[in-house]
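Shipment paperwork, digital attachment
Item: protein structure file
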Amino acid sequence: MTAAFIAALLLISAGYRVVSLYDRGAVWLYLYIAAVCLCFCAFAVLERRKRKRTEERIEQIFFDKTAPGKPPVSEDELSLLERRVLLYRRQEETREKRLSEGYANLASLVSDIAHQTKTPLSAIRLNAETLSPSPEAERIRAQSVRLTFLIDALTRLSRCESRLIEDNLRPRRERLGELVCSAVSDVWSFAGTKSVKLECDVPDGLEAYFDLRWTSEALFNLLHNSVKYSPTGGTVRIKARSYDMFARVDVSDDGPGVPEKERSDIWKRFYRGGNAVGDGVGIGLYLTREIVRRQGGRALLSDEGFSIFLPIQPIGPQYGSQQLGL
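Attachment content:
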């Protein structure tokens, strides 16, 4: 296009030279200037359209966006720049695919190892329980319990690093009472060891859209955390309420609470607060947030305790908490 523009200017200039040899009137000068200006304007408009068309094609290449009624751009129609952009995008897609496959294979390997370890570990714990009371037997029992905890944590971590959560979430209309009962039954024995009382306030008939199995694990993480930090003889309270667009489940306890400066960090992977107690790797709350978020809900921490919000109506995970107005 630049060559055509230069050729047009040369042609206009040559024509003006020829005409000026026979007639030096001012009108020809004005026409020459007007023609040159018109040529510049036409060149600017065409360049702008070309740049815009290139931007649209690059956007289409990166985001697979095609204007309504327009066929996809074929490779034969692409310019050198667009071909390079397309090649770069394909290389990035290949790299991302390899990384995703690598994470999936690693998660599968970790899950297999954890599964194969459980049987001999259970045998060790069983034999430790049958030994006569002694410091050695107690150490074997304590270390087997700790190893079981680490294996379980490793399995849960592999879930976070792979697409296991989002690929297996099947939200449907479920009762909140059933969700709370499932989570409470899993934490009941742990609460009994600390003489922690569990109080539930879940009205009948409350329903929301969630995957019962995964969301029960998310709520269990909150309950387990509350029981762990509650004083002996304390109380953990579970309360559920329903609103126009979402259902809310609150978990509160008599523990020391989370300092204000740490509340935005506790949802991160591997984060443990300054007042953390007992064994842990810091993935329970992270897993809770991911499970709830991928169902279009949200997990929060306030002065009163933990809260999870679940949608009342079916909702895609791509809308997230914005759809709930949170």
